[in-house]
Write a structure and sequence with these properties.
This protein is mostly helical. It has helices at 2-7, 9-41, 45-58, 63-74, 78-102, 106-114, 119-152, 162-170, 177-206. Helix 8 packs antiparallel against helix 9 (177-206).
Length: 213
């Protein structure tokens, strides 16, 4: 195992960086999408129910099957990987964003409107900051989940560490097959832990001191 890693160290580092970059960029995109959808939905009970149901149903879709289906319109490579990772990343963030925004005390919103804030200003200066810890929790869930999904995206020749896993599984019993799978799995776990730690720090730095838990 040590020899396998040492001989391929530079390539493993490159693949790890590509894997992390894919997840982080998709996570940022998913957060923007989820917040926009949540901002549209959270004032309506019906739309809130629709958003929650979409999130629940979306999580039941097998990622491997979705990647296979997206190969048809998007081809192989980065495009289907980004589409699948972003899709699954949106779901927990959307659910948490809707919950966080709906739980903001209406009295605080009315007070903000009473002092002359517009609806947009109230959202960004009052509601979103109060809901932010819940949104961050959704981002952490998405980050952990999509680390694994990004590895599955290697089926569509997407970037990252999944190639080691699929390569090893395709030749089980052959030379270095176990080492290849173990390298991919361990590297994905390490990246997931590092990204989770980064999100915890970001949450601490971006959450108002008065509402920190």
């Amino acid at each position: 195992m040590i020899q396998f890693v040492s001989q391929r160290w530079s390539q493993i580092m490159l693949n790890s960086w590509q894997h992390l970059s894919l997840v982080v960029q998709c996570l940022v995109l998913a957060t923007v999408i989820a917040l926009v959808v949540a901002a549209v939905c959270y004032r309506s009970t019906f739309l809130t129910s629709v958003a929650n149901n979409v999130s629940a149903v979306g999580l039941t879709i097998p990622s491997f099957a979705l990647i296979g289906l997206l190969i048809i319109p998007l081809g192989f490579g980065v495009a289907p990987a980004v589409a699948v990772v972003t899709f699954f990343a949106v779901l927990p963030i959307l659910r948490n964003a809707v919950v966080g925004l709906t739980e903001v005390d209406p009295a605080l919103v009315e007070a903000a409107r009473g002092v002359g804030m517009s609806r947009v200003a109230t959202f960004f200066r009052v509601e979103l900051p109060l809901a932010w810890p819940v949104v961050i929790a959704g981002m952490r869930i998405s980050a952990q989940m999509t680390m694994g999904i990004a590895a599955v995206a290697a089926y569509a020749l997407g970037p990252g560490l999944g190639g080691y896993i699929f390569s090893g599984l395709s030749r089980l019993g052959g030379a270095n097959s176990f080492e290849s799978v173990a390298t991919g799995v361990i590297a994905v776990v390490i990246l997931a832990l590092l990204l989770d730690a980064a999100l915890i720090v970001m949450g601490r730095l971006t959450t108002s001191r008065g509402i920190r838990v």
